[in-house]
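User: Predict the complex.
Assistant: Input components as received:
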Amino acid sequence: MLGEFEYALITAAAGLGDKAYGAAIREEIETMTGRKCSIGALYTTIDRLENKGLLKTWMGETTPQRGGRAKRMVRVTPSGIKAAKEFYDAVARISRGASWVTS
Amino acid sequence: MGDVMIDLLTVASQLLPPREREAVLGDLCEARESRWRALSGVLGLVIRREAILLKDWRPWVAAFGLSMPASFCLMGFSLTVSWSFQSWIAGGRALPLIENAFLLSTLAGTGGFLVAWLSRRTLWMSILATFSPCLFCLARFRQHSLPRVCLLVFLLPAIWGAWQGIRKPKPL
């Protein structure tokens, strides 16, 4: 099963769609969670998820805002979507009946 | 101060693979991170990468199962070769020198090859494991007939072997 950060990363990448790349995913995670996301955690997790076949990455275009450097684009694979859904379902099942869950 | 940070960032980013360096530096530039945060981010990534490599058994076997014990043995062998050489210079037979030198080259070369082949990306750890016994023995070397550097004769074939191991496709 996915970890919490892996789930956040897949969810952020899936939400960004074709615009999912390192900096955008990082910003999205920080907005979603309200916590700082280190570049080390981001890229090691992207690699791990790619090795598991849950993400696909490739080098994208360069932009002047990036000092002419290429983006590492990310796409969630069907296996990634399935794993994220399983994680979400498990959390929903575990949380059922908890006092902080609003119906 | 700013230039120093940029230099440090450039050096630190060299520790990343080219593709990843490009993406990471671009992300940091786009996010307009402060130089200090950019440097700590890159160093954090480098440390995480090394930590992931160290989860594997191969770097540990290469460093503490091969490099460290082998360097003790090979230092002893280096002394034997040096004594054989001394004896040959003094008019003794050449055969013991040739035999010992051949054996030392083979053992050190094979050891260096194996260590590099097993753990190319964590070779720094094996180098530390090799040099720590060397420093220990160099500090306690009391043999007046030979210079201290004789202890390190094995390093030449070991480095050659390691170079061959680095060039060969490897498991890590």
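Helices of chain B lie at 2-13, 18-30, 35-53, 58-89, 95-118, 123-139, 155-167.
Let me know if you want any component modeled separately.
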